Amino acid sequence: MSLLREEIVEELVKICGADAVVTDTEVLQESSYDRFRKYEGYNKVFTNPLPAAVVFVQDKKQVSEVLRFANANGINVVPRTGHSATEGGLETIVENSIVLDGSQMKKIINIDTYNMQATCECGVVLEDLENQVRELGYTTGHSPQSKPLAQMGGLVATRSIGQFSTMYGGIEDMLAGVEAVFPDGTITNIKAVPRRAAGPDIRHVVLGNEGALCFITEVTVKLYKYFPEYHVCQGYTLDDMITGIRIMRDVMTEGYKPSVARLYDAEDGKEHFSHFAPGKCVILFVTEGPEKVSKANAEGIREIVSKYSECTEVDHKLIETWFANLNWDAARIEEERKEVLETKNVCCTTEISANWSAVEEIYRICKERVVNEIPDITVFGAHASHCYSNGINLYFVYWYNVVDCAPEDEIKKYHLPIKKIICEETIKAGGSMCHHHGVGKHRVHWIDKEHGSALYIVKKLKAAFDPNGVMNIGTILPYKK
Amino acid sequence: MKLLVCFKVIPDLDQMAAEDYTVDERMQVDTSFVRTMWNCFDESGLEFGLRLCDEAEGLNLHLEKTALTVAGEQAELYLKTLNALKYDRTVRIDNEGRDIRFMPEGIAQEIAAYAKENPQDYIIMGRQAAPGNNGLTSYFTAATLGIPLISNVVDLHLLEDGRLWAVTEAGGSLYGQTAQSPAVLVIGNAVISKLRVPTLKDRMQYGKKNVDITGAEILKTYSGENPSGMAYINRERKGERMKATGQKAAEELGRWIKERRSM
């Protein structure tokens, strides 16, 4: 028999203390959704059931006890840290969920510059860690736009990636070791070593689990020497996105390693570059590292771009200034809230990845279909911001005016139909529907097509580690009542 | 009814770092590398223009709205957006790269010359705009045209007789009044601050409509004022944490303020 709300709260208070358990209605409302439902949230409309409580855990022992309690009583647990998720992964879709919040576990445990790795608790804000290691002349190499908000546990749980990924990789390339707690209360610590061949790489059970298998309590990431004085920034305007994709491919397949390689189409670029490139696509690169490496990469890239006569180089200061203002902090979210409420113009995104041979068609067909099939679109554009030797990501950015529609219907009328087009067309072309925001609860509709025969592995993992199905119900795999 | 809304596109100075504020030999700070944006007061004015038009439809009145700027080519994209938002006419008085930061009177004369040639019932202007923020252009415009000016307008509505109801703010209070035409209405901290966004289809359909471009004949011969010096105002704030609480905190704060007063 399921426990009453009051009984759940009472037990949580016993485990974590009264101060750690919050049941204030406003906090519960804010904890019932993430940025996927930002339009509803900005309008103070809350469509998900409110959680029973938000629990601010202080250590792994408390995490273990809360999970053991939830597991024994069939209570849904939604793990979170920075609350900056975008795909509904933090939504509480069943009654009386527990939001297990690790944001107060914010100790930087060790910065080991000899072994080039840093260990911290799950609630450390990435920007705080980065600032500390920068003072010592190092970097984590991780720089998602959410850097001022996102915390280390969530960054690992969602398989995040940052703006310097082309050189440093995604979080999967940075993560050396990790500690996680599973629903039966077992605390596991995967040691941080350079590499090992002791069976499957079990870091990947934890990486990207989106709180559907375990709760991450501690993270060890690699460090790199930081040479900001040798950064070289270059940007170009061009007319055509497809040409830009081919330039990106040339750069990657020739073996160059920019830290940043980004390509914006004219529509998406309008929001960023209209002061110097109205109506144009923009391609830009940053190279970094030791002086000789950075210069060699920059020269090689310049040589490749110079073969494309339609590219016109722009003053590097334009790119540097834009880049310095790219991140999202709390003030920017507040700005967005005010703007959305006044204009009813909403911006959402869907990021995918595909091999070089598929990406051009995905771009073309998604653009054509969304613009023709979805009403009230004000911007539909894309940029590519993460490049690999075998392909690239596309980050579709779309804005629409919410017209004749209640806040609770906005997702059904606009966001999900757009996402459906992008995900289905991407999967049909052989790409992946999620590049770096995770599946959350709103891409589960296509998870079988995404994985195909490999869905067997995902399902077995879920059944093995969360047999009672209490970890973030409806995330990665659909919720079946 | 004819409505003229004047606006200015400005650099987003929030994107500038302190070290970017270097004054060159022409007494200019280079802002060309930061993005541009609507001046906030003008943005409210432009949205009022659209809302008044919506109200006019409901009242079966005809409202013809024109948007005007005195600017270079960087304003083109913004004028196209206004075309897409169905402004009936968009006008750019081309300043041909002249430094007009300190020429509010000259700019006002250009606007007034346009308004004389194309008579308007109401002219809506933002209170002030960076860089410069002199707040004088609207006053000079009204004076040049010899028409009344209503300052600090925070809300505007269309009345059934085709006149405007203007809500103004003064001393923390709001006052409503019927604005006789012609008049210049100066937008302050308005109840609306954002311009609506045109759909992609409207941008494609109407965005390509021509912008009327005319030369800035008055500004060509206008000398204006030459700045003699420019300095960066350091607005840096500092915080100090007091450990005391209650009465002790109040006493400590009192001492802290006294010490600084005597500095």
UniProtKB/TrEMBL annotation, chain A:
Residues annotated to bind substrate: R337
Q: Where does FAD bind?
A: E210, G211, A212, L213, C214, F215, I216
Please name the catalytic residues of this protein.
Y395
Q: Where is the FAD-binding PCMH-type domain?
A: 47-226
Which Pfam families does the entry link to? Answer: FAD-oxidase_C, FAD_binding_4
Q: Which domain of life is it from?
A: Bacteria
Q: Where is this site: Important for enzyme activity?
A: R262
Requisite cofactors: FAD
Looking up InterPro entries in the UniProt record yields: Alkyl-DHAP_Synthase, FAD-bd_oxidored_4_C, FAD-bd_PCMH, FAD-bd_PCMH-like_sf, FAD-bd_PCMH_sub2, FAD-linked_Oxase-like_C, Oxid_FAD_bind_N, Vanillyl_alc_oxidase_C-sub2
Name the UniProt record assigns to this protein: FAD-binding oxidoreductase
Query: What's the source species for this entry?
Result: Extibacter muris
Automatic annotation (TrEMBL), chain B:
InterPro entries documented for this protein: ETF_a/b_N (IPR014730), ETF_b (IPR012255), Rossmann-like_a/b/a_fold (IPR014729)
Its Gene Ontology molecular function terms?
A: electron transfer activity
Keywords of this entry: Electron transport, Transport
Question: Which residue stretches, if any, does this entry annotate as coiled coil?
Answer: none
Tagged with keyword Transport: yes
Write down the superkingdom of origin: Bacteria
SUPFAM superfamilies documented for this protein: Adenine nucleotide alpha hydrolases-like
Q: Name all Electron transfer flavoprotein alpha/beta-subunit N-terminal domain ranges.
A: 39-211
Provide the transmembrane region boundaries.
Answer: none
Q: Which family does it belong to?
A: Belongs to the ETF beta-subunit/FixA family.
Q: How does it assemble?
A: Heterodimer of an alpha and a beta subunit.
Under what name is this protein listed?
Electron transfer flavoprotein subunit beta/FixA family protein
